[in-house]
Model the fold of this input.
Amino acid sequence: MVKRKSKPSTAVDRAAEAVGHALGTVAGTIESLQAQHPHPVEEAREALATGQETLSAVASKAGSQATAMINKAKAVARRAKKVATRARPKSTATARVKRTARNAVKRATKAISRGRKTVRRVAGRLKR
Done:
């Protein structure tokens, strides 16, 4: 039997060139991404910190507004009670005004607590 020296086929050359080209493209993409974002973990931490600061600011503002609304409603109720007691002492109108003022304060307090719960719930979702 005679041994022949065969030349590498062109199909194998083309396949090797295609694989080399693909690997070169991937390597180039990785290098360009590393050049653009040398520390991606640090960038992500900074973005997260910024988001948390914004969230805490919004939550504190909502809480302070809710507290102000409750205090205002209580002040109005106190004033209404005083006016009612001065106008007609021990009358049914006084009791009615007091009851209405008390119910208004209750409603305002409930609404504010619901708002605070909603803000806490949203803040919890955003932290996850």
About this structure: Residues 13-127 form one domain. The chain has one domain: 13-127. The radius of gyration is 36 Å. Residues 40-87 form the longest helix (48 residues).
